[in-house]
Amino acid sequence: MSKCKSVYYMDKGVRPLSLAGHVGFDSLPDQLVNKSICQGFCFNILCIGETGIGKSTLMDTLFNTNFENFESSHFEPQVKLRAQTYDLQESNVRLRLTVVNTVGFGDQMNKQESYQPVVDYIDRQFESYLQEELKIKRSLHNYHDSRVHACLYFISPSGHSLKSLDLVTMKKLDSKVNIIPVIAKADTISKSELHKFKIKIMSELVSNGVQIYQFPLDDETVAKVNTTMNGHLPFAVVGSTEEVSVGNKMVKARQYPWGVVQVENENHCDFVKLREMLICVNMEDLREQTHTRHYELYRRCKLEEMGFKDTGPESKPVSLQQTYEAKRQEFLVELQKREDEMRQMFVQRVKEKESELKEAERELQSRFEQLKRLHADEKAALEEKKRLLDEDQSSFSKRRAAAQLLQAQSLTANGKKDKDRKNSGFM
Amino acid sequence: FWLHSNCLEPRNSPALNPLYSSSAMSEAVVPDAMVSPAVGGLHGEKAGGPAVDFSYVGIDAILEQMRRKAMKQGFELNIMVVGQSGLGKSTLMNTLFKSKVSRKSVLATAQEKIPKTIEIKSISHDIEEKGVRMKLTVIDTPGFGDQINNENCWQPIMKFINDQYEAYLQEEININRKKRIPDSRVHCCIYFIPPTGHCLRPLDVEFMRRLSKVVNIVPVIAKADTLTLEERDFFKKKIREELRANGIDVYPQKEFDEDAEDRMINEKIREMIPFAVVGSDQEYQVNGRRLLGRKTKWGTIEVENIAHCEFAYLRDLLIRTHMQNIKDITSSIHYEMYRVRRLNENNTVMAHANGIPEHHLAAHEM
């Protein structure tokens, strides 16, 4: 039997080596990209904002399509979420885009629970991914990732500050999703007001400890543009799918009597910046952050909640497997105990019922005896009566016989007398 | 699964023709799996309506983002070489990666003795080419097939491979996981067949049969310069037959072909395996060019000349075209199979410990 001796040099002393010629693995990124093209991409955006603030229009404008939305009513009793999924394609890239909109956000009289459905939705997506990951037979590579990658929070263009609903909601969501705040309908604010508004919003977010998504600065290629953009947050956007002719071109714009607000004009609004940042530059990073930060946090909390730990009581590393087995054993013991309990309870109930029935039987028996006795008594009484009656009858018949005899005797005596009288009468 | 949808015109398209085409906005299929109707929560709907598009959105920029991220992270590749000593494994590795990656070059010990037992030695290297960084780990198995009694010689290798899967699994099921789990799983195992010219030996068959189930095996005919072209073709045909007869599925495996296009490409490869290779790390002057080769009295064998040997095909397969695919099969098929086996194993062990029949466990999947 051959033995094995493993000598690992892996983690220590990885030798840097220089190549003497062209090997060819520089095609690896291309291979990776090709694979992704075949598989397609997935991106999920959550839009939170009051009814009528322009969420659907912005989505239409952003992705250059008509997502066929309809207006929601302002009278929803509770905040709901509506998710729609679309397959888009641009050149050879296929994107499965899911847009989730809140319905009825900010419409209720009492907005205390407004954020809850949103948090629940996000958690549900994490949960279903976690379930898939923990399955024994799993298919993560075909799994349709529905976790929310980006959350666009629409701020009302009041010009003053954030509403308390905004702060509360964003605070609840900042550890679960990448929040990108945008100022909606920015064509209602003037440039100077806008500047002040942005500063106010950012300072309020900072002072309340809300962690919004920062565009990543670790990659030199995009660090510069990301830094600039980070300074322009929150983006003031205007959405429109209508075309207006400006100069000799047709552009997306909103036409007012006093002028035309062009969506893609950087002087008019930050729409182009938003599109750049959200799609062209950081889409992959948003997905990565969701997976490595938000999802991991959720997973950690969820598993710890269920009682799993990485280290056991002696702070030795305990594998999930061991904890799971211990838990399962616990569970099975519990199951056994419950079974026993139930069995005992069942037996007891049966006994009780049995004694009840016995009791009833006894009662019936005694009643029967009683009745029997009563009958016997009555019968005896009746017999007695009958006897008396018989006696009476017999004595009566005797007397009658005697009386009849007497009568007969007296008749003959009288007859003689009569005869005598008769006879005497002749004389 | 992927419905074809409207095409957004690329940026440099001059005409602004709205595409009210037949390829209308494809429905989301929003099947139940995607949008779960929950209490007071969610309801999904289908999308419809004509597509109106005029300009560039920028979705395809994600490819560039992905490429950048991959380049920044770097890649990992773990190759194992298995074969009797003297078949040129180290030389081939050096030739493939054009540098001294083999164990012999690293471990200065002039250990020319054949070890008494199979050892598994893995050495990592950091190599870089045109901005792409790769951590290459070469796992050598000196002593394989060299003993007198070679029964069960695959066991240490099998154990090593499974140990790597185990390490990955343990890391994956931790509560506090690393951001990027270090991947030490063996992606590819190159098996060296001695150039007898006849057929596979029982050792070869046994090894490949067992290990093709847990790892991607790429068989090569070593030192192919001892075979003439006819002998080579005959040998290859024989080997392919024997592989088929024994049900050994080597890379690229038939059962993992994804679609017709894949199948077409892979069939061509399958008709060529095993590759007859010659390795060399010495350069010679041939026709005014410096080429890698082996110089003999009767001629110079050019390693990268496909008329001489099939090294170039092997290199292209392993490195230039199918490297990502090899890694994917390892992680999504071999590793998953191991994981299923392992997790089920625990269940049965537990069950027997508690005297509970197995069918009770079906419901308790986590």
From TrEMBL, chain A:
GO molecular function annotations of the record: GTP binding
InterPro entries for the chain: G_SEPTIN_dom, P-loop_NTPase, Septin
Biased composition regions of type Basic and acidic residues, renumbered to the chain: 415-427
Residue runs in coiled coils: 343-391
Domain Septin-type G: 39-305
Renumbered residue ranges of the record's region Disordered: 407-427
Gene3D superfamilies from the UniProt entry: P-loop containing nucleotide triphosphate hydrolases
Keywords: Coiled coil, GTP-binding, Nucleotide-binding
Transmembrane portions of the chain: none
Family of this protein: Belongs to the TRAFAC class TrmE-Era-EngA-EngB-Septin-like GTPase superfamily. Septin GTPase family.
Name of the molecule in the record: Septin
Gene: septin10
UniProtKB/TrEMBL annotation, chain B:
Protein family per UniProt: Belongs to the TRAFAC class TrmE-Era-EngA-EngB-Septin-like GTPase superfamily. Septin GTPase family.
SUPFAM superfamilies per record: P-loop containing nucleoside triphosphate hydrolases
Record keywords, A-Z: Cell cycle, Cell division, Cytoplasm, Cytoskeleton, GTP-binding, Nucleotide-binding
Transmembrane segments: none
Full protein name: Septin
GO cellular component: cytoskeleton
InterPro entries: G_SEPTIN_dom, P-loop_NTPase, Septin
Record-level Gene Ontology MF annotations: GTP binding
Subcellular location: Cytoplasm, Cytoskeleton
Primary location class: cytoplasm
Annotated Septin-type G domain residues: 73-345
Domain of life from the UniProt record: Eukaryota
GO biological-process terms attached to the record: cell division
